[in-house]
Write a structure and sequence with these properties.
The protein contains 1 helix and 8 strands, in the order H-E-E-E-E-E-E-E-E. It is mainly beta. The chain has one domain: Thrombin, subunit H, CATH 2.40.10. The longest helix has 13 residues, at 2-14.
């Protein structure tokens, strides 16, 4: 069932939502050791890529606590994200995002959700 759903949603991304789909990259610091004296780390950035649809939250959902003004939502298919998005990861785009009118730069993931079948990631992004 999951494979069928991913195929259907992939086709929707290619056809119906093609104008709204934007490629993005996610980044976080990988494992490493921190020198307590110099505060330097051996950790290297881990970068993954995917594509998804960026969406504004409805004004009624913005409560100033869980969803703040300026937060945006990113829906990405799990089969098209070459990594595992998580809270704290930086998400950016090279291309313009329709709802922003410019590339998304400096957004961090503040909430990760999805669906029971594991077909898509539902990411809440906030300007860092």
């Amino acid at each position: 069932m999951r494979d069928e759903m991913q195929e259907i949603f992939g086709e929707l991304f290619d056809d119906v939502f093609a104008e709204s789909v934007t490629a993005f990259t996610g980044e976080y610091m990988g494992p490493g050791v921190v020198d307590p004296v110099t505060e330097e780390t051996t950790a290297q950035p881990v970068i993954y890529a995917g594509r998804g649809v960026f969406h504004e939250y409805d004004e009624k959902r913005v409560d100033g606590l869980n969803i703040k003004f300026g937060d945006i939502q990113l829906i990405a298919l799990t089969s098209e994200v070459a990594g595992r998005p998580d809270v704290g990861h930086l998400v950016e785009t090279a291309d313009n995002v329709g709802i922003l009118g410019m590339p998304a730069k400096g957004y961090r993931i503040v909430r990760v959700g999805g669906d029971p079948a594991g077909v898509h990631h539902d990411l809440q992004l906030r300007k860092a």
